[in-house]
């Protein structure tokens, strides 16, 4: 957890990442707004996700995430990092225990030698990252409507709704073939979806007689609340989990 954002290293299993993140972020936003007696958005825009090739970037990403508080000046050194409870690092070292955090994969990666896997992890952390951090922030390849493109530097403009990948060219090609071939998937055009959503909202306003401004706000008459609830269900079912 950083000052204005957070990092998660997750492995989706039964559900999609988008659905999991919607449940997580919506649930926290409702809790935070209730606790703070406020309304409105808590998080700005959609989350950024990068698909990681485990063999190439998994351990480097673990190190990158856990050293972020040092780079940002939140803590001064690795000793102080043990006291930063808003990090998965303290679960690994045993300072705190988070039942939702799984370390089985890390244990297998860091096991070996004469030391414990935690000691090996700490040595790995203290050595610092030797890889290009840009690959961990932006990925190495991007898949969008134009196809597969290599991310050559920090200066490249990455489409906000693209699929980002951190891995080798062969791995990126495999993901590309999966998206466009075997599963016959397409990269979602969010711009077109937003236009369609606006049409749905306009139609609901015309049928119900409730203005769009009122539909976009909370509260109001019973009619507005009922229309807003129906409209939300329609938009979620049609667009959220495609």
Q: For the CA atoms, what is the radius of gyration?
A: 22 Å
Biggest sheet descriptor? 4 strands, mixed
Percent helix = 40-55%
The count of β-strands is 4
Number of helices, counting only DSSP H or I runs of 4 residues or more: 11
Which strands sit side by side, in order, in the main sheet? 1-4-2-3
Structural class: alpha+beta
Any low-confidence stretches, pLDDT <50, length ≥5? Answer: none
Please write the string of helix (H) and strand (E) elements. Answer: HEHHHHHHEEEHHHH
CA(first)-CA(last) distance: 29 Å
Look at the structure and give the mean pLDDT: 85
Strand content: 5-15%
Structure description:
- The chain is an alpha+beta fold and 242 residues long.
- Helix content is 52%, strand content 6%.
- The chain has 11 helices and 4 strands.
- It has helices at 17-36, 54-71, 78-81, 89-93, 104-110, 117-127, 133-138, 169-182, 190-208, 212-215, 222-240, and strands at residues 50-52, 141-144, 147-150, 163-166.
- The chain has a 4-stranded mixed sheet with strand order 1-4-2-3.
- Helix 5 (104-110) packs across helix 6 (117-127) and helix 9 (190-208) runs antiparallel to helix 11 (222-240).
- The chain starts with 16 loop residues before the first helix and ends with a helix.
- The mean pLDDT is 85.
């Amino acid at each position: 957890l950083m000052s204005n954002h957070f990092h998660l290293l997750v492995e989706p299993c039964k559900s999609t990442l988008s659905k999991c993140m919607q449940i997580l972020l919506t649930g926290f936003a409702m809790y935070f707004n209730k606790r703070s007696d406020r309304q409105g958005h808590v998080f700005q825009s959609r989350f950024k996700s990068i698909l990681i090739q485990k063999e190439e970037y998994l351990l480097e990403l673990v190190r990158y995430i856990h050293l972020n508080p040092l780079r940002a000046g939140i803590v001064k050194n690795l000793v102080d990092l043990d006291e930063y409870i808003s990090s998965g690092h303290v679960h690994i070292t045993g300072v705190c225990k988070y039942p939702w955090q799984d370390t089985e994969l890390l244990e297998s990666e860091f096991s070996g030698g004469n030391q414990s896997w935690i000691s090996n992890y700490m040595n790995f952390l203290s050595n610092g990252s030797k890889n290009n951090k840009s690959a961990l922030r932006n990925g190495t390849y991007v898949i969008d409507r134009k196809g597969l493109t290599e991310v050559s530097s920090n200066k490249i403009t990455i489409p906000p709704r693209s699929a980002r990948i951190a891995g080798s060219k062969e791995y990126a090609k495999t993901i590309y073939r999966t998206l466009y071939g075997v599963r016959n998937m397409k990269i979602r055009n969010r711009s077109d979806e937003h236009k369609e959503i606006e049409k749905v909202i306009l139609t609901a306003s015309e049928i119900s007689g409730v203005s769009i401004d009122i539909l976009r706000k909370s509260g109001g008459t019973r009619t507005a609340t009922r229309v807003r609830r129906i409209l939300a269900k329609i938009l979620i079912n049609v667009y959220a989990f495609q």
